[in-house]
Design brief:
single chain; alpha+beta; 8 helices; about 30% helix; T-fold; 8-stranded antiparallel sheet; 4-stranded antiparallel sheet
């Protein structure tokens, strides 16, 4: 029996990562690990390379993440996104390629999900942020007013001029369901341009892996159970050149009147999702897995499964906890797209 080098990462949406091997052999390349805080969460990079230029390459990847954060943040008044939101209604605003790409992918997901994914939900999200802090539901009148400013069809993109137009004054865009995934993809692109092809990038509930660690078949990623939060995962995936994202209410929620409301808002109702749930999506890239996980959370297992199953290279696992039990539903192709590793608990391979 060979011992494996493993590191456990607990994210805010209950993804557990084991940076180890599916089948253990001593690596030929040196292993490096770096972490920095960006976009409100910890970004972790694990990479394998032959020389000490790892720190320089990782720094460049983090710089790329910081650049995207400065463009897409709705917390920074100086971000490019916020400048778009402050522009007068009906005016075409030329934007950077990064912001346009994120908005373009957002609108594609909005169309495919019939509005379950909608970045114009910003005004409603702001009310729910306050509601979680105050411990009470948003004021109905203010919520209705905020809902009048939402709707993905009120956001218009023009690829020819690379411009964005908003229909109403007071609209606010929230890229929280896609920007982090895009940043992870772009950080991995930096590593690959610098010749690093065996790497993992984790950012909260979003993980992207490239080729497998030396001597292994893939990166082992464990999906933690909903109850209890500290329990070890009961499912482990072995992935390579794939992304995995989990969307849920493990930590970001509020209980009001015995009802548990998630930080994820249903764009159709303006209300936070209820219940204790999570959706884990495996897809070819992290921008896609991030957005799909959010959309599938809003749609629920039946409609969400149809959306995921219509996406090439994607699969999803829906988990819901009740007082009696934890139930899981997986899409068709889950075991093919997300091959499972049996019995991986301690980080050691059992013969």
């Amino acid at each position: 029996m060979r011992s494996l080098t493993s590191i456990y990462l607990f994210s805010h949406i209950a993804l557990l990562l084991i940076a180890g091997y599916c089948f253990g052999f001593r690596p030929a390349l040196a292993r490096f690990e770096f972490s920095e805080v960006h976009m409100g969460t910890q970004f972790k990079i694990i990479l394998y390379c032959e020389s000490s230029h790892a720190k320089t390459v990782a720094s460049q990847a983090f710089e790329r993440v910081a650049e995207i954060d400065a463009i897409t943040s709705d917390y920074r008044e100086t971000s490019e996104l916020m400048s778009v939101c402050r522009a007068p209604a009906g005016r075409k605003i030329r934007v950077s390629e990064d912001l346009f790409r994120v908005l373009e992918k957002s609108q594609e997901m909005a169309e495919r999900s019939d509005g379950a994914f909608d970045v114009t939900v910003g005004p409603v999200v702001k009310l729910w942020r306050h509601a979680r802090r105050a411990g009470k539901l948003p004021d109905r009148l203010r919520l209705d007013q905020a809902m009048g400013l939402t709707g993905y069809r009120k956001l218009h993109l023009d690829r020819a001029s690379r411009s964005v137009t908003l229909d109403r004054n007071g609209m606010a865009l929230d890229l929280g369901g896609i920007a982090k995934g895009y940043a992870v993809d772009e950080a991995m692109a930096v590593l690959k341009r610098n010749g690093v092809t065996r790497a993992l990038i984790a950012a909260g509930g979003d993980i992207l892996v490239s080729d497998a660690p030396p001597g292994s078949e893939g990166w082992v990623i464990g999906i933690a159970t909903l109850e209890p939060a500290s329990a070890p995962p009961d499912r482990y995936l072995c992935l390579r050149d794939q992304a995995v994202s989990t969307s849920g209410d493990a930590h970001q929620y509020v209980e009001i009147g015995d009802v548990r409301y998630s930080h994820i808002v249903d764009p159709k109702t303006g209300l936070g999702l209820t219940g204790h749930t999570s959706v884990t999506v495996v897809a070819p890239v992290c921008t896609l897995s991030d957005a799909l996980a959010t959309a599938a959370s809003v749609l629920g297992p039946v409609r969400g499964s149809r959306l995921v199953e219509s996406t090439p290279g994607a699969a999803a696992l829906f988990t819901q906890a009740t007082a009696e039990r934890v139930a899981a539903v997986q899409t068709k192709g889950w075991e093919r797209v997300a091959p499972q590793v049996r019995g991986e608990r301690s980080g050691h391979r059992r013969n």
